[in-house]
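Researcher: Here's a chain I'd like modeled. Treat it as a single chain, no partners, no ligands.
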Amino acid sequence: MKRSDTFRDNADNCLQLAERSQGQPAHNRFLRMVEAWTALANEQDWLDGEVPPVAARSRQRQEA
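Model: Modeled as a single isolated chain. Structure tokens:
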């Protein structure tokens, strides 16, 4: 399993915890953790060469 997949699994787990959480502070905390794990997964994909850098993606969209 790729590291980015593991990070995305962690994000999914945090999302489930957010849905079951008691109270808004806990809910918000788990949602921030979802965002953090997702960002780590996206960065790991970039480090593994699976997605181009942001500047290259922006340039490709403009050319399309």
